[in-house]
Design a protein that fits this description.
Helix 2 runs antiparallel to helix 4. The chain is globular. The chain is built from 9 helices and 4 strands, in the order ααββααβαβαααα. A two-stranded antiparallel sheet has the order 1-2. It has a two-stranded parallel sheet with strand order 3-4.
Length: 232
């Protein structure tokens, strides 16, 4: 993994708020190379080890509700590039057409099996395929849908200097995001408005701090802490 030259970044990312983050990452060439090597090695091993589990979960999803096993949605990753994320489906078929891109407590679109998968974060397992394809990394900013990325401030665009991640400090802090959303929701507000106005800026503070202190040792610690967070 390496950074492209500054001049090759998308125009929207070439601003003075992004430049300090770019300069910090540019001197971490060895850590960036190790990050991609770790993604490929760990991704391949985990895909093989967890394939029986994923097959069982796929069967359970099909038995529980009508619809496809996987949820595919366009998300934004490194340099603002679009890709299709792989997740186990946890909501009714075509849920993204029946409500907002984020969920709140008691969201009726979530299936019985989906609640279990979300609680244990098992719906994230198919993202191993995204990691192997190079669209994602194990650690990094969680990928957003395009309409939320369009709401980024100039500084927030710095989070797209690296690939989107399966987990992060933000993911650990906001593991119960639907409860956080519920806290801010007031009569007359839409879920999208609340997410962009309140939740997104809070999450981005963690993501930008990660970029400032990026290291491969830090990534390994985040992965270990994520495992313990899920267990708890």
């Amino acid at each position: 993994m390496r950074l492209v030259e500054w001049e090759r970044l998308p125009k929207r990312m070439r601003n003075e708020s992004v430049r300090p983050y770019y300069d910090r990452l540019r001197v971490r060439k060895k850590d960036l190379a190790a990050k991609r090597a770790m993604d490929v090695a760990a991704g391949a091993v985990l895909t093989v080890i967890l394939s029986p589990v994923m097959l069982i979960l796929a069967a359970a999803i099909k038995i529980d509700s009508r619809g496809p096993v996987f949820f595919r949605q366009e998300r934004i990753t490194q340099y603002g590039r679009s890709y299709r994320i792989f997740k186990f489906r946890t909501m009714v078929a075509d849920a993204d057409k029946k409500g907002p891109a984020v969920t709140t407590c008691g969201d009726s679109r979530i299936t019985r099996m989906g609640r279990l998968l979300r609680k244990c974060r098992l719906d994230e397992l198919p993202q191993l395929f995204n990691v192997l394809a190079g669209d994602m990394s194990f650690v990094g900013t969680r990928p957003e849908v395009k309409k939320y990325v369009e709401a980024y401030t100039e500084e927030m665009w710095a989070t797209l200097l690296l690939p989107a991640g399966i987990t992060s400090r933000t993911s650990i802090a906001y593991k119960d995001e639907d409860e956080v959303m519920e806290k801010y929701l007031k009569e007359g507000d839409t879920v999208d408005e609340v997410y962009i106005r309140h939740v997104l800026p809070e999450k981005m503070r963690y993501n930008l701090e990660y970029l400032k202190n990026f290291s491969i040792a830090g990534d390994i610690k985040v992965m270990i802490d994520t495992v313990f967070a899920v267990i708890r």
